[in-house]
Each structure stands twice: as C-alpha cells, then as structure tokens.
Give the backbone structure.
Amino acid sequence: MSKLFPPPPSPGTPMLASRPDYGVRQFLALRRSANKLFLAEPGPDPEALDELIQVATRVPDHRKLTPWRFVVFEGDERIKAGKVLAGIAGRRSGDVESRDVIEAAGLFLRAPVVVAVISSPRETGRTPAWEQELSAGAMCYNLLLAANACGWAGAWLSEWIAYDLDVADWLGLAPDERIAGFIYLGTATQMPQERMRPDTATLIQRWRESEG
C-alpha cells in the first residue's frame, strides 16, 4: 500500500470514541469542493486510490452490510467510457453531433480519476434500504475528505448519467442499485472561492414537551 494512512487496528481492538484535534476541526470548517472544470493531473494512482477507498469505508453501516461498491475510471479507460456515454446521449437526443453528445464524451476527462459510488442495499428485512442509501452518501463524502486530506481536490457530482437507465445497464447495476454519485479527483488548477453558507439558526428546532 502507499501508506497514506495508518493501518487499521485488528477487529475487537478497543477504540477511542472521540479524538479532539484542532487541525481536524479547522479542516472540516474550511472544507470546499473543487470546481469540476479545474481538476487536472496528478490524481491518485491506483495504489493510492485503493487506500483512499479503504479508508473511506469507515462510515456508519448498520449491521455491517457493506451496501456500496465502486466503479473506477482512470487513464485511457476514461476515453473509452466517454464514447459509450456519447453513444447513449446520441440515442437520447437523436442527434449524434449535438452538444450533449460532445459534452458526454468529455465528462470523465474532467479529472484524472472518477469513482462511481454505487448504492447497493442488501435485502435483510431488518435494515431499511434508506439507511443503507444514506451510508452510500456518507461514503461519497468520506472519499472526498480522505482525498482532500492527502492533497487531492475533488467534486461529488451526479448529472444525468447518475439517473439514466442505459448508463445503469452499462455499469451492470442490479434493479435495486443506484448511483450515489461520481467522485472526481485530481489537482486543482484554480482555487475555489468560498460560497454562501446557510444560517443554521433558522434551521434548528429544539424540541420541548408541550405544556398543554
């Protein structure tokens, strides 16, 4: 392994329930996605990406179902994938030379590495699919955080390819699987600007038992 992170402890090892760290707090307070148009080489190599994904799996996962999997696009395979996406877009629009087709061909070329995170819920009769889908969303975010912490910029996107049935069929998704997102990873060529953030005071309700 590339040793970007310390190795995980053995199962059953007592773990700290919290790890106070100002550096981590600063990291989270200043987290920012990169602009998808400004991601370039270098991105994580296969060995580093495998380690990023391994670390990213440390997300809430009720009953340890592992309800997610990954499809990685890197190197020249991004070009081949783009041709498939362009073909799908052409069939959708009926015009093989449309702007949509051209853009589809270049979607995965916007970053050196693209990871499709597939939500793959397990039917157990005990853990709701919604909880498992939330775990896949946490996986997307954790992968971004892991990459950022190692010096790579990233963006979590969906776009039409996350919802297209032909794309799902091409990627071999089962009927109950969905694309949670595409994680684009690389090196930022332009620093993103801070954007407006919500006023959480307007979003928080503290429950109190009614006096009536």
About this structure: The helical segments are 22-29, 46-56, 77-93, 99-105, 129-149, 165-170. The longest strand covers residues 178-188. Residues 32 and 73 are 23 Å apart (CA to CA). Strands lie at 39-40, 68-74, 113-119, 153-157, 178-188.
